[in-house]
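From the methods appendix. Each design record in this collection lists the tokenized structure first, followed by the designed amino acid sequence. Records were kept in a plain field format so they could be parsed without special tools. The example shown here is representative of the layout used throughout.

RECORD:
FOLD TOKENS (349 positions):
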């Protein structure tokens, strides 16, 4: 009921957002075009699966192009431009850039709020010939070769509203700037007829392509050693789990854990990109110790693992802390079609 009191604030927020976009559309506010850059992002606040899709693109393109991933490094404490090393702390570069840098040794990862400056620097210093702009769809100072827009199956942008009444940070009409739209976090059993329904609901333009992806959960890994776990999901059905999440929306992850690993779950849910404090670490330790079961482990997300492993846990805790890697899968056997479309768009003059 009280949420509707926020609707007038959304209307007020929409005015500067619309004016800004009009000024860019009329070229009054200037943007810089980069033929060697592609953008992936959303118009929703968090939770669309941007990082695994960015990693998919990095994996697809790193062998063909001298590739970089550029992010602003959300919640990092450092300033300006910074090349990301796998040995950095998440405090300096942000959890998502650190995760990508640790997984992809062949590509350059950098953080900078000034993307125009950063792209020029990457092209000059590292001879980068393809920059993947992470979370840059709404960043209109840069005009990439093409943009990929993500929206979730459960909360599509066309049914949402602007902040603070809804979760949109930009006008839903801006979807027309994307060449590719991906419906993320889909159930694996969606029917082909839904493709037509979604195209109609989005009002897909003739120049746009629509794809559907889902999350594939991989074997657990140890947080502090990155080694693969010897556990299979079936081995953990009798275990008690402490689940730690600091992501935008943990509902899907919690559902997967309960349906596929164990029903005995204690969940500590923190805010997105949460910077864990000593108080949090004490809470995690105490809650885990209070679980009265000899067979118990801690499971967290890959992004949270980037932050948690910087803290000084006792050795017995380190041995019992695992994270859940994920990757994306395209539904309707659309992986070859998606891959070819990406290469085609990059190659176009």
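DESIGN:
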């Amino acid at each position: 009921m009280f949420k509707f009191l926020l609707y007038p604030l959304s209307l007020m927020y929409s005015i500067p957002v619309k004016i800004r976009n009009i000024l860019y559309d009329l070229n009054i506010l200037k943007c810089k075009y980069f033929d060697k850059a592609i953008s992936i992002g959303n118009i929703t606040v968090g939770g669309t699966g941007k990082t695994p899709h960015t990693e998919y693109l990095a994996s697809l393109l790193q062998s063909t192009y001298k590739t970089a991933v550029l992010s602003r490094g959300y919640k990092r404490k450092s300033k300006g431009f910074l090349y990301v090393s796998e040995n950095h702390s998440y405090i300096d570069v942000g959890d998502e850039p650190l995760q990508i840098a640790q997984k992809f040794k062949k590509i350059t990862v950098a953080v900078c709020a000034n993307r125009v400056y950063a792209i020029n620097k990457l092209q000059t210093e590292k001879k980068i010939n393809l920059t993947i702009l992470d979370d840059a769809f709404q960043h209109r100072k840069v005009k990439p070769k093409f943009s990929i827009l993500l929206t979730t199956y459960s909360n599509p942008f066309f049914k949402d509203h602007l902040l603070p009444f809804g979760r949109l940070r930009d006008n839903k009409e801006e979807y027309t700037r994307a060449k590719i739209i991906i419906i993320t976090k889909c159930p694996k059993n969606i029917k082909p007829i839904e493709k037509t329904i979604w195209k109609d609901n989005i009002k897909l333009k003739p120049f746009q392509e629509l794809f559907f992806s889902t999350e594939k959960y991989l074997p657990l890994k140890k947080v502090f050693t990155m080694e693969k776990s010897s556990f299979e999901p079936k081995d953990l059905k009798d275990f008690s789990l402490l689940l730690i999440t600091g992501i935008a929306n943990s509902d899907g992850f919690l559902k997967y854990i309960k349906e596929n690993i164990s029903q005995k779950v204690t969940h500590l849910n923190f805010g997105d990109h949460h910077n864990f404090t000593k108080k949090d670490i004490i809470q995690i330790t105490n809650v885990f110790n209070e679980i009265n079961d000899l067979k118990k482990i801690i499971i967290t997300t890959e992004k949270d693992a980037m932050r948690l492993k910087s803290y000084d846990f006792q050795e017995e805790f380190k041995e019992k802390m695992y994270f859940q890697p994920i990757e994306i899968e395209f539904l309707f056997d659309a992986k070859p079609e998606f891959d070819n479309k990406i290469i085609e768009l990059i190659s176009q003059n």
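APPENDIX NOTE: The radius of gyration is 21 Å.
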